[in-house]
Amino acid sequence: MIVSSPRTRSKEPDLAAAEAVDLARAAAVAVAGPERVGEHLGVQAESDRVVTHLFDCLDPAYVGWQWAVTVARAPRSKTITVDETVLLPGPGALLAPPWVPWHDRLRPGDLGVGDLLPAPPDDERLVPLVTLEGDDAVADWYYEDAGDEQGPAEPAELPAPGRSRVLSAIGRESASARWYSSEHGPRTPLAHAAPAQCVSCGFFVPLCGELGRLFGVCANAYAPDDGRVVSADHGCGAHSESVVWQGTARAISPVIDEFGYDLVDLPGVSVEETVFEPLSRGAD
To answer: What is the 3-state secondary structure (H, E, C) of the chain?
Structure first.
């Protein structure tokens, strides 16, 4: 059995349709007006006997756009008809950026007064409070024999019953990475110039639970991070144990000019009317 190879159709534009420039221009002028249709830019083959003519758009509001007029003819027919006329962006057209849904383009700090941003039910940063197993276990937040370390040691200090969800392991890791790489972490000029780290400062209030092993809140009213979460290896010049060098100030003796003098006017005496005699005259 002999199987003939399938015939590939040429992508060359149909000659009759490609020559219908005047018909395509008339269609574009009928839609946009003669003052908004420019020169013929070229021809594109869409399929067999279907061709699109491109014209420059002269509308100042659509710089770089092109009028695209698609024409076609039926098989074994010489009559060319217009399929559609549309305005399409060209290579240098000014386009709007891709549309992004609101919940995807929202950024930290965008929430204002009166705005609501509830966490979705499937938020991976949160888990139900009743989760007690695995990496997301609430019990991992708290440990016995806490002593002087961070974290509550009494069951009465567990989260309030009204809170249905708490941070998951992903939520804690995300918060830790965000805080540690922020300006309240250890890699800032303020921390590098500090005399000591926050972990040894009396104003450092550690967080409870797992996050308290690395983070706390600054309670120094004079510190630039007052009321903010800082890493334990952060620091600033307001450290509670910082020492200011107080050197003894050396008294400098005043310099008195005993040879020079100034002439000043006194009540009833004018410098200009006073006669001065040399000091050496009395010695003569």
So the answer is: CCCCCCCCCCCCCCHHHHCCHHHHHHHHHHHHCHHHEEEEEEEEEEECCEEEEEEEECCHHHCCEEEEEEEECCCCCCCCEEEEEEEEECCCCCCCCCCCCHHHHCCCCCCCCCCCCCCCCCCCCEEECCCCCCCCCHHHHCCCCCCCCCCCCCHHHCCCCCCCEEECHHHHHHHHHHHHCCCCCCCCHHHHCCCCCHHHCCCEEECCCHHHHCEEEECCCCCCCECCEEECCCCCCCCCCCCCCCCCCCCCCCCCCCCCCCCCCECCECCCCCCCCCCCCCCC
